[in-house]
Amino acid sequence: EPEVTQTPSHQVTQMGQEVILRCVPISNHLYFYWYRQILGQKVEFLVSFYNNEISEKSEIFDDQFSVERPDGSNFTLKIRSTKLEDSAMYFCASSQGSQPQHFGDGTRLSIL
Amino acid sequence: DQQVKQNSPSLSVQEGRISILNCDYTNSMFDYFLWYKKYPAEGPTFLISISSIKDKNEDGRFTVFLNKSAKHLSLHIVPSQPGDSAVYFCAAPGEAGSYQLTFGKGTKLSVIP
């Protein structure tokens, strides 16, 4: 069964550094998403992407965050200047239509 | 802002018995609901969904019931198996045209052999 793949599985970064999280969505999917889960909290929506542009974003997705689909297969989340509170699991998801969304196994981001 | 609530953080059930996981929502504009299952160190896996035009959807051992007047849905697993031990999330997409999922906090199900 096709799946969403995310790399790396764990990223450790110094505060203030830039980080790029990578995702390969399912190949025939058209909608792409990033979510995050801070330890002990809910899974929270960050952003959705369709037709090469952001379609929705949450209040969390401020100017420090950006997304890109640099080629036909990758979907990336960049955090420009990381803060301690950015430490979380980041999940990429994709969907063919609106639902259901299929999730990757996540990248654990640790900010030191 | 808890538009989707799962009030039981954990549930333990004997193997072979029924597991019932509950979810309440506050936004009456929600018209579609999903259940996801999550194992440690993995992402959420889609399990089953239900549209508000139905009150029940069944897929093998999994059945989701929707009570719109009570703004309540439940996931029934019968018979429960040890491999069902995981965290179960209830989720709903936003209002019309929104694809973002709002998740509950999850219920950790433990199926005891």
Features:
heterodimer; A: 112 residues; mainly beta; 4-stranded antiparallel beta sheet; globular; B: 113 residues; 5-stranded antiparallel beta sheet
List the helices and strands and how they pair.
The complex is a heterodimer of chains A (112) and B (113).
Chain A: E1 5-7, E2 10-13, E3 19-24, E4 31-37, E5 43-50, E6 53-57, E7 65-68, E8 75-79, E9 88-95, E10 102-103, E11 107-111
Chain B: E1 4-5, E2 10-14, E3 19-25, E4 32-38, E5 45-51, E6 56-59, E7 62-67, E8 72-77, E9 86-93, E10 101-103, E11 107-112
Parallel strand pairs in B: 2-11
Antiparallel strand pairs in B: 1-3, 3-8, 4-5, 4-9, 6-7, 7-8, 9-10, 9-11
Give a structural overview:
- The complex is a heterodimer of chains A (112) and B (113).
- Chain A is mostly beta strands and 112 residues long.
- Helix content of chain A is 0%, strand content 51%.
- In chain A, strands 2, 4, 5, 6, 9, 10 and 11 form a 7-stranded mixed sheet that branches.
- Chain A is globular and about 35 Å long.
- In chain B, the strands form 2 sheets. In chain B, strands 2, 4, 5, 9, 10 and 11 form a 6-stranded mixed sheet that branches.
- The model of chain B has no long low-confidence stretch (mean pLDDT 94).
- The chains are: A mainly beta (112), B mainly beta (113).
- At the A-B interface, strand 4, strand 5, strand 9 and strand 10 of A face strand 4, strand 5, strand 9 and strand 10 of B.
Short description:
Chain A has no helices and 11 strands.
**Shape, per Cα inertia axes of chain A:** globular
Return residue spans of chain B where pLDDT drops below 50 for at least 5 consecutive residues.
none
Assign a percent range to the helix content of chain B.
Answer: under 10%
Query: How many whole angstroms does the radius of gyration of chain B measure?
Result: 13 Å
Task: List the total number of helices of chain A.
Answer: 0
Categorize the overall geometry of chain B.
Answer: globular
H/E topology pattern of chain A: EEEEEEEEEEE
Report on the biggest sheet of chain A.
7 strands, mixed
Q: What is the helix tally of chain B? A: 0
- The span between the termini of chain B is 37 Å
Sketch the topology of chain B as an H/E string, one letter per element. EEEEEEEEEEE
Mean pLDDT of chain A: 94
Kindly state the number of beta strands of chain A.
Answer: 11
> What's the overall average pLDDT of chain B, rounded?
94
Largest interface: A-B, 26 and 23 residues
Distance between the termini of chain A: 37 Å
Task: List low-pLDDT spans of chain A.
Answer: none
Radius of gyration of chain A: 13 Å
Derived from helix and strand composition plus strand pairing, the structural class of chain B reads mainly beta
